[in-house]
Amino acid sequence: MRSEVLEEMPEAIMEYFCEQVLKRDWPNCIHAYYFIKNAFQWMSKNSASSYKLYYISNDVENGTFIGILSRPEEEYPDVVVTYTCPGNEEQFRRMLYSTEYINWQKKPLFQAIPFRMKAIVETMIEEKGLKSKLYSNAVLKWMPADVAARLDYEIPDDVFIGQLSVDHIDFIYSLWTHSDVYPKSDLWDTVRLNIGLGVFSRHNGELLAWAMCGSYGGLSTLIVQPDYRRRGFGKLIVLAVTKVMGENGVSPHALINEKNNVSLGLFKNVGYIKHSTPLPYVVVEDPDTSGP
């Protein structure tokens, strides 16, 4: 019988784990850092989704962590966020092999894996008799909170910046390209519990562009309606959400598909710093059992 080395992380240890352990590898740890911070905030506010956060209690300093985000829609995969401090990859491999907390049969999505851990995750999926598939390679862009808080921008006379509401969710979700792995409940929680802003027409109140601080605590769901592109609304809403995040003490960060040159250029133009290595998204699938 395998011995479970992971324990659920109590809120009392969260601050030390994030500030004193993870931050030694800043900003490489930024995804796990804000995933944890956001999880505790959402759990205290009765989010539709549920979080489970696990760590090695007798060896906190190595920074080994697994976070699992489960959504109420059963047809959607659990999201798994993993991390360990550099140099602890072998211990992480052993932990990933032995833990019973990951429901492999639910075909989880491993979100933004540190590249040095990618092969470990892929090998483990194969050892579980399943198949790994690269969903995307994400480029991490980030900005220090104090820099973000000092950003300034001008709003054109024909639009205004306003809060998103739950009434906008159906429309936003209909245009979201990642609805294959992220359910509508993610937007529901984000709009109610995190930052969600839109660019609205002063003429008729139409929602033209939007962005949010999503379930992992980073800037997400950036969309400009097709008929309103190339008017600067994408940059405007990124600036607006980035500034609010900075004012709230959050270092804004975004995970952008490496093939999305438009968004990569936009975030660079706003002043985001590019991380040096990609962060892969890997989905678990059933093995290919088709014959020749």
TrEMBL record:
Pfam families: DUF5645, FR47. This is N-acetyltransferase domain-containing protein. SUPFAM superfamilies: Acyl-CoA N-acyltransferases (Nat). Coiled coil: none annotated. PANTHER family: GLYCINE N-ACYLTRANSFERASE-LIKE PROTEIN. InterPro entries: Acyl-CoA_N-acyltransferase, Acyl_CoA_acyltransferase, DUF5645, GCN5-like_dom, GNAT_dom. Residues 159-289 form the N-acetyltransferase domain. One of its GO terms (molecular function) is acyltransferase activity, transferring groups other than amino-acyl groups. Keywords: Transferase. It comes from Aphis craccivora (Cowpea aphid). It comes from the Eukaryota. Gene3D superfamilies: 3.40.630.30.
